[in-house]
Fold this protein.
Amino acid sequence: MTRRVLVTFLLAAASVRAGLVTGIDAIGLTVSDLDRSVDFYTRVLHFEKVAETEVDGEAYEHLEGVFGLRMRTARLRLGDEFVELTEFLAPKGRPAPPEFRSNDRWFQHVALIVTDMDKAYAWLRQNHVQHASPGPQTLPAWNRNAGGIRAFYFRDPDGHALEILSFPPDKGLAKWHRPGGDLFLGIDHTAIVISETEASLRFYRDQLGMRVAGESENYGPEQERLNSVFGARLRITALRGASGPGVEFLEYLTPRDGRPFPPEEKANDLIHWQTKFVGASVEEAALSLRRNRMTFISSGAVELPGGKAVLVRDPDGHAVEIKEERK
């Protein structure tokens, strides 16, 4: 091998190891009434609204794959993390499929860290949230990687799944254990239901460049009640980037009757979420994703006022956006 070829090979290998993204900027979800959703997330969940935009035009149509769109987006912050809520003024999308279950493969949620589970649950009850779990569940001590974690699933006004989560002292990021924090601290991760962990690792770890931060296998009555899925046994894999919340895979080992991602789903439908990553070069990301035969929602790397972005689907259909890092 010549010196020039060797250098080229090593640079290419380093590029692959570096991955396409550096971290997650925000978790996006489509809502039916932006004002109602902003009120819920700020008043009930203690997010802070930091920006609102209204856009239309060809560039956004090419990014979202929706013709003739006009959309309002609010950017909200909780601690160091962000969500972006988007209402499509035109065209309106479809409602969520009936009898939505936590093991359906379009399932996605955000996990909000709380300092006191009992107080947080009481506050949610006071604000009449819709339960998705019968109440907070404490994962059993025999589960070495998850024992002592307390969690509760509920829904926002559009039925999007949300979770409040509290960690025992020996688990979770150090920042979740700082003294004197507010009741709602921030977003630890977004969780997605997947069909095969290895296939998802090839995308999120090997292509995007996230690292595996933890693994566990969860089952038993507490997990069944948390997910409201009888007989639930999950292989859970946590991944993180250099910044932002993590991504958590939920592979249901049993039952395996979760419905696949609706093939006709679009960005204006109410089951739509977008995990919004940041990367150094969107053009290079788009080329790499095409080489790996990923399914594109956008027409390619799209030039927007704030920089380029590309929107694709992961192996199970979840929407993943990569945009240029904010300067």
Remarks:
- The chain has two domains: 24-95+270-324, 108-254.
- Confidence is low (pLDDT under 50) at residues 1-17.
- DSSP finds seven helices and 18 strands in the chain.
